[in-house]
Design a protein that fits this description.
Layout: H1 3-10, H2 15-18, H3 24-32, E1 44-49, H4 61-74, E2 78-83, H5 94-98, H6 101-118, E3 123-128, H7 133-144, E4 148-152, E5 159-161, E6 164-166, H8 168-179, H9 185-194, H10 207-218, H11 233-252, H12 256-259, H13 262-275, H14 280-292, H15 298-307, H16 330-340, H17 356-360, E7 387-392, E8 395-402, E9 410-418, H18 422-429, E10 437-441, H19 456-464, E11 472-475, E12 486-489, E13 509-513, E14 518-521, H20 525-534, H21 545-553
The structure holds FE2/S2 (inorganic) cluster.
Length: 566
């Protein structure tokens, strides 16, 4: 192929602006931003960063984007950085701010789709940290279906205080200790001031590290992307390598829909299970699959959980942090082990232009004698995955539980109903949360919240108050990846849509059974019918603005809360 033909192929979108005589204004603007005559022939790569100064998950991403741009330019392409939003779930302050968190995922997808489509970019690199930014970026890539690579901003380093390692959950749990008078004012302040030492995403196997690890397993980021901490030199090196990888994708026209397949989604979810990842992965992979036009259901996810054991002793339920993973070979070493055990599909294509199996040929081996972070199948922490899909008269269309085995597999108790998460903090302060209760937080669903708030604050406060193994919590909202304890979220249908969770009263008996995968409200059908006849659908909390639009568009949690389907 001659040079001109190659160039035409690589700039097949941007040439509309750079070459067609009918676009003089676009060409004038491109010269205006500094492009040369030679640049006008090159493919253009949009570099989407969720960087901003206001939180540690995103504060360094604009800097990483500059390294990505250098790698793009070094490979004879034009890299153009643009920004989109990123919301930090650690800073959303209960229901009010948290309402915007999950909707931000779809807003990120919409905004990347908008810029890349409108500006005719030939490929896209997303530089993202934090929970919603990653699935938002992947959904945009799937919609655009142009050569794409995701760069993860990287995990944070641990904080330290009085010889203890800390992270964001330490700060939340300190609140519970404070409410229970279990911590001095000085130590409370010490924990808050030292939990977060700088740039990077929350350090356990919480939602950000879950999504980064599984997206790498799915093949949409370079090997080790999820394992380099934000401040590790390897992260900069990864950014500089993006240009060469993107060139291969353009030359071979490898697009996300060739990478996202039923098998690669299974690889992603296999890593979620093996590493003990966040329940939010359920929501996001349902959404990613729907966006890519691939069938994936809650029952499919349960089937993966049934066959993949929990192997990693990572926080929130375990001991170690994501920063500890690099020393044992990172996610590639875990994938290699699972591939050798027949649990990973090796023939899926990845953004290296190679298959998973080809990438793993270069990966290190896990040394089970030298480390105690990831265990072999024979010593699995739990024989099946920790994510369990529960059904029953409280959740006819499903609920998502995180059961690592440490919290037991069955809980029966009496309902304590809260209409929003703030009530839990008040109830804890008043000593009204008692052992044996099943706390029900409702009207927190996708439409009712709106935005399906995370319950990290209540669950952490419960843990901090020493009630973690004495109460359970169910909700039509969702959980942070940092949540642990006996919790069931994503209950569908949600209360706002008349789901049975709307009919629960204080004192009702509830059974959560992770073995039979049942969630049962012990109230007769007749009584429930009577309660339903008294129930009226609440007015939407918002009718205008972003949240008003979200309430109108969002699908149920069991369908991934996507917003672009009729
Ligand atoms: Fe951003 Fe945890 S709040 S990664």
């Amino acid at each position: 192929m001659n040079q001109e033909a190659t160039t035409v192929q690589l700039n097949r979108f941007s040439r509309t602006l750079t070459q067609e005589v009918s676009n003089p204004a676009a060409q004038a603007m491109l010269y205006g931003v500094g492009l040369t005559e030679a640049d006008m022939q090159k493919p253009q790569i949009g570099i989407a960063s969720t960087g901003y100064e206001g939180n540690t998950c995103n504060m360094h991403l604009n800097g990483l984007s500059v390294y990505v741009k250098q790698g793009i330019q070094a490979n004879d392409m034009v890299g153009l950085i643009f920004n989109t939003i990123g919301v930090s779930d650690g800073m959303t302050n209960g229901n009010d701010g948290m309402r915007y968190s999950l909707p931000s995922r779809d807003l990120i997808a919409d905004s990347i789709e908008t810029v890349v489509s409108a500006q005719w970019y030939d490929g896209v690199v997303t530089v993202v940290g934090c929970d919603k930014n990653m699935p938002g970026a992947i959904m945009a890539m799937a919609r655009l279906d142009r050569p794409s690579i995701m760069v993860y901003g990287g995990t944070i380093r641990s904080g330290h205080y009085k010889g203890q390692k800390l992270d964001i959950v330490s700060a939340f749990e300190a609140l519970g200790k404070k409410l229970a008078n279990n911590i001095s004012d000085e130590d409370y302040k010490g924990v808050i001031q030292n939990s977060i030492p700088g740039a990077g995403a929350c350090g356990g196997m919480y939602t950000a590290n879950t999504m980064a690890s599984s997206i790498e397993a799915m093949g949409l980021s370079l090997p080790f992307s999820s394992s380099y901490p934000a401040t590790h030199e390897g992260k900069q090196q990864e950014c500089k390598k993006i240009g060469a990888a993107m060139k291969v994708l353009l030359e071979r026209n490898i697009t996300p829909k060739e990478i996202i397949s039923r098998e690669s989604l299974e690889n992603a979810l296999t890593i979620v299970m093996a590493l003990g990842g966040s329940t939010n992965a359920v929501l996001h992979y349902l959404a990613i699959a729907r966006t890519a036009g691939i069938s994936l259901t809650l029952d499919d996810i349960q089937a993966i959980s049934d066959r993949v054991p929990l192997l990693a002793d990572l926080k929130p339920s375990g001991k170690y942090y994501m920063e500890d993973m690099l020393a044992i070979g990172g996610v590639p070493a875990v994938m290699k082990y699972l591939y050798q055990q027949g649990m990973i599909h090796g023939d899926c294509l990845t953004v290296t232009g190679k298959t998973v199996a080809e990438n793993l040929a270069e990966a290190p081996d896990l040394d089970f004698d030298a480390q105690k972070i990831v265990f072999p199948l024979s010593q699995a922490i739990k024989k099946t995955g920790h994510i369990q899909i529960l059904y029953g008269n409280l959740a006819p269309e499903g609920g998502v539980a995180k059961i690592t085995g440490k919290e037991g597999e069955r809980f029966e108790g009496t309902a304590k109903v809260c209409e929003h998460e703030g009530e839990i903090i008040d109830a804890l302060a008043k000593g009204e949360i008692l052992p044996g209760q099943v706390i029900v937080i409702r009207n927190a669903g996708p439409k009712g919240g709106p935005g399906m708030a995370e319950m990290l604050k209540p669950t952490s406060a419960i843990m901090g108050a020493g009630l973690g193994d004495k109460v359970a919590l169910i909700t039509d909202g969702r959980f942070s990846g940092g949540t642990h304890g006996f919790v069931v979220g994503h209950i569908t249908p949600e209360a706002h849509e008349g789901g049975p969770i709307a009919l629960v009263k204080d004192g009702d008996r509830i059974t959560l059974d992770a073995v039979s995968r049942n969630i049962t409200l012990h109230v007769s059908d007749e009584e429930l019918a009577e309660r339903r006849s008294q129930w009226t659908k609440p007015e939407p909390r918002f009718t205008r603005g972003m949240l008003g639009k979200y309430i109108r568009d969002v699908k149920p949690a069991s369908e991934g809360c996507v917003t672009d389907e009729v």
